[in-house]
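Hi support team,

I submitted a single chain yesterday and got back a structure, but I'm not sure I'm reading the token output correctly. Could someone confirm the output below corresponds to the sequence I sent? I've pasted both exactly as they appear in my results page.

Thanks,
R.
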Amino acid sequence: MTDPEPRRRNRRIRPAAGPGQPPAPPTLSPAPPAAPPAPDPGLPGKAPPRRRDLRPLWWTLGTLALLGTLAASWFALPVRTVTVQGNVRLSPAQVRQLAGLTPGFAWPYYGAWRAQGLRRSPWIQSATVTRRFPDAVVVRVRERVPFARWQGPDGRVVTLAEDGRALPGARGVEGLPLLTGWGPDRRRDALFVARALQKYNVQSVAYTPSGITAKTGASTVWSGDLKTLLKYAGAIVQFPDKELYIYPWGVSVQ
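Hi R., thanks for writing in. Yes, this is the structure output for that exact sequence:
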């Protein structure tokens, strides 16, 4: 249905500014959103290529170079000169073998780890190994010396050094004092007596649970206490060709 008289639409009319009043500010509509920047036609749409990591290659080359240097030093710097000092009973060849100085061994890699045989040998009391550039090694040893013979319960005779270490293969020891005994092992006490009375030409020392008997070139002496024996040891010279029994209170001569 059509309205024969169309109505006028209502429009909002702002009042005019009166005299002395500022005009009303104009109504501002919001600005449209900014368009995104256009892509640079000079850059491709793909990501830039990755840089190749060359570290594994350098590590491999460095390892190969190091191995080559070590191999070259092994063959270029062998031990050519070995000097052995201080040996008496051991031959220079035996000392070199104990020191691990085999022919052709590389001088830069020789050290204490190679010379452990010197420490394990009963004949070596101490040793010093010195390297001298470019191809020399000096081995200075101090050997143990046979001091006495010890006859065990099984009758087997073993050569002993002064510190009690057994010295296998010792020769020319028939004139050393012979240590014997029974009961608890008193080899250290017997060695002590043989060492303390060494100037009296001790020929044998025998121990028992009750005491120790020492036979010298002039007499025989017994004592139940080591300190007392040392205190009256001068009686060996005063009473030659006698049997001496030393007690804490004095000496009995028979």
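A quick pointer for reading it: The helical segments are 55-76, 92-98, 116-120, 187-196, 226-231, 235-238. Let us know if anything else looks off.

Best,
Support desk
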